[in-house]
Amino acid sequence: MTPLYGFILLLGGVGLFLYGLNVCPENIKKYLGRGGKVFLSQVGTRKGSSLLFGLAFSVMVQSSAAATSFIVGLVEVGLMASEGALVAIMGASVGTGLIVYFLSLDIILYSPVAFFVIVFFGRFAKGRWKEYFKIAEGISVVFLGMALIKLGSQPLVYSELVRNLMTFLTGSFLLMALTAYLLTSIIQSSTATLAVAMGMAGSGLLPFPSVLPIILGAYVGSSSSALLAALGKKRKSQGLAWSTFLYRVFGILPMIPLGALYVKIGESLPITIDVHIAFLQILLVLTNMILLLPFVSFLSKMGEKLASFSGRESIEPLYLDWAFVDITPLAVSLLTKEIVRASNFLEEFLYGLFHGDIDEGRLFLLKSSLPDLVDSCIFYRSAITWISKEDSALVKEFVATSYSLNALKNMVILATARLFPLLRGEREVVGYSLLLSEMEEIKGLFFDIFTSSLGAYALDDPSFAKKAFKLYGEFSQIIAERKNRLMLSHHRIEGGTELIDLLTLLDAILRESLEFARVARRYNDKSEEDNKRFINRQGEREFDL
To answer: Coiled-coil ranges per the record (predicted)?
Structure first.
């Protein structure tokens, strides 16, 4: 086999390896869709369960980087506290040590047979067994990629160019560590970096002392996945990413003398260099965990402190995590949270628009951000996998969320595209101050109805809904009287036409807000049979999104 063909095999093996690392998390997340929301919300309550969860999850997805990104997502959506998540990431690091050990064994060469058996029997599996075979299929792809890496590395030893390059890199501890760090940061997997290192070391391209800087560089480089996963997310998620980075940086410091001691002793041991790499990785993650586990709270606070330097959070989606869009119950719950959050921003925008006690920069930020935030919700909702009508509770929540999102979209358009120009833009109402001085009652009723409607949805409380509908009856009578008076005399009142438009817009916004109240009343005032009929009827309807 020529070095060129070996290099092609090596590249193919790395590609297959990375593909397997991508498939494993996707299959696991689909499996977690069955009651996973409850499990994930409870797993981070204790250090022991968090540690075991991180370890087991990283082994199943074959990557601590993928596990770390997933855990950052759990913190982002509020399903795991920062300290519990950091402990889970420690467990994921230990899981990486086990993965590397499996990769060092000669049984990897039998992975094509295992892949064939898993795929063949997986075609006939049904129900839960089909999900189990899908998970096993992803793991077998990782092992198959490792087998190709080992096979492709062997011919490279005959390439003078490769030998010269490896001689240059291995001549410096720092250069080797930096190379491993950069490679891991690029491919987002320390496991893949170590897999390549094992393949090259097994073929004689890497001398034994050079494996230590590779392991240390790859270990710190794997934390870059957490930093990337936290970009643009909440402060807690960013804090967790920085805590993970600090945890691994501090962890390699005691490992430098320990690793050097192991390298001196290990050369005389009758084991392969692949197993040496696995043992060094396990020694690193265990030392890191044992020394820093008591300082989880300190690391978490340091991470949050570093995250605070990133500046004020922008108005962007916080709960719409695409890692969970295939887990329908969790995705619907996250969308509901984002709708409530966007509604609160809309309330802040309207209050500032009417009362003026808001920073102008903040007001314009809300105006420009709200439409994009709602569009993100709509896009996320369209990606959620539709659920069976047999789960009536989930269908109820899904339908209610869709109706409320449609109403929110209409309210945001009315508020930002029509109400804002009327009060602050080119069509500014000339008689607005006169209107407010005469109609404090309308202002008060408007915000009472609006907040009651949003409260009915956010708290699922029919009492708020009843209050909103009752007050709207009073509001509609008052608004009709004022509009009639203005229509009869608008030609004599400066800005009379704009005042009529203003009242019409207020009424339109409130009618849309009542969709929020209607959701709570619909499912609490009616019988279960009425609810089922409503779900069946609305489930077939196309939502105006």
So the answer is: none
